[in-house]
Amino acid sequence: MRLVPAGAWREESDAAAIVARYLACHPRIAWVRYPGLPADPAFQEAATSLVSGFGPYLAFALAEGSLHWLRVAPSDAFRIVEALEADLKHPA
Known about the structure:
There is one protein chain. By secondary structure, the chain is an alpha+beta fold. It has one domain: Aspartate Aminotransferase, domain 1 (Alpha-Beta Complex). It contains three helices and three strands. A hairpin with a 4-residue loop joins strand 2 and strand 3. Helix 1 packs parallel to helix 3. The longest helix has 19 residues. The N and C termini lie far apart (about 40 Å). The mean pLDDT is about 90.
């Protein structure tokens, strides 16, 4: 098992939160699962048990039905949002 330093975990969590919040507001997204979003079913438990952030992983579904998951690195958050914006601009 590889342990991640708390500072790196926080940076990854912050990056994933940027992407999750973007997706949560997008009209073509059916749902987003990220424990750092207050609307997530796991938020209350995660908020009381995760010490240094909510982690780098999130899952989402397009309104058209396809499921996706991402692991967001700190340096990738804005690049991912820009790519999603371009991809989600046009219906599938």
